[in-house]
Structure formats: C-alpha cells, structure tokens
Amino acid sequence: MSIELIVLDVDGTMTNGEITYTQNGDEVKSFCVKDGLAISSWIRLGKQVAIITGRNSKIVERRAKELGIKHFYQGVGDKKEVLQNILGNLGLNMGNVASIGDDLNDYTMLLSSKISFVPANASNHVQKIADVVLSKNGGDGAVREMIEKLIALENLEDKYLGLWY
Q1: Model pLDDT for residues 18-39, shown as the tens digit of each residue
Q2: How far apart are CA 8 and CA 11, in angstroms?
Q3: Cα distance between residue 2 and residue 45, in whole Å
Q4: Rounded distance, CA 60 to CA 22, Å?
Q5: What is the pTM of this model?
Q6: How far is Cα 8 from Cα 15, in angstroms, rounded to an integer?
Q7: What is the assigned CATH class of domain 9-94?
C-alpha cells in the first residue's frame, strides 16, 4: 500500500521549536527552505500533505498557503482524531499515512501511521516508538529527509527528479 498522505507537526519539526516574540508581541518562526521544496514537490507528484499542529499561528497559516497545503489544522488537541477525519474525507486509511512529529502530543498520531518519523532532536519517548529517527533536527531539513526517504521507498525517484528537469 502506498503512502498518499504525509502529516506534519510544526514546532520542533518544520521549525527548530523556538518561538520568538518581538517587543510588540509578534511571533517569529523560521522555516527550512529545503523542507519547503520537498513538500511542494511531494504535492506536485499528486500526493497529499496535512499540517496538524497544537498551536495557532498566522505565520504557519501563511507557510501552508505558500506551499499549497490544503489540509491545515491548528489548535488541535487530539491529532489522531483530526487525522482520522482527513482520511475519511480523502477515502484513505492509516496504511496510506506517513507522519512526522517530535513530542508527546504527536505520540498517538505517530503510533497510528503506517510509517512514523521523528527528527534527531525529538523527545526520547517518541524516538522509542518511531519507525525512523532522522539524522536531521527539526527546522534543519528533517522534513526534507523524511520525504526523500519516502520517495526512495515508493520508487518515485525518476518522477521526483523529473519535476526539475
């Protein structure tokens, strides 16, 4: 069964987990451009991407729009429940899901997915249950590494590279 949907946590996965506030109270986050290119390429291959995050952030909403991510959920307490709803809407099941998260609020989502990934600097508790502990930290190419592993696993290298030549 092929992976049709990747599910992304944000803080500590798409970002390094730091949240900076300006003197005016604005929130600042940084995203890895390499992750973004891989995410948009996955979508161009006809695959789906979802962001499911526990926090609310206009910055993350903007990033999701930039990347063309249609399934975007913020302020989520139960990530597995939201994931099940997405799957129902898409006509997919957990056998079609790869997920990445870094902390305890990702635990049940990671356990439920066909393939689970965590960044190198993830919580030890989620590292123990993950299928793959990546070599990259969150915000430093972990999502890119996950997608490239999936591309290889799904034998999509030619199609993936064909997007760029």
Answers
A1: 989 999 988 899 999 999 999 9
A2: 10
A3: 13
A4: 17
A5: 0.94
A6: 11
A7: alpha beta
pLDDT digits (tens, 9 = 90+) for 64-85: 999 999 999 999 999 999 999 9
Q: Residue ranges of the domains in the chain?
A: 9-94
Nearest to 43 by CA among 93, 4, 94: 4
Largest CA distance in the chain: 50
Q: Which two tokens stand for residue 102?
A: 């870094």
Determine the pLDDT at residue 1: 62
For residue 32, which of 121, 144, 165, 132 has the smallest C-alpha distance?
A: 144
The three-state (H, E, C) secondary structure of 27-81, written as one string: EECCCCHHHHHHHHHHHHCCCEEEEECCCCCHHHHHHHHHHCCCEEECCCCCHHH
Per-residue pLDDT, 85: 96
Question: Token match 């390094």: residue?
Answer: 16
Distance between CA atoms of residues 6 and 80, nearest Å = 13
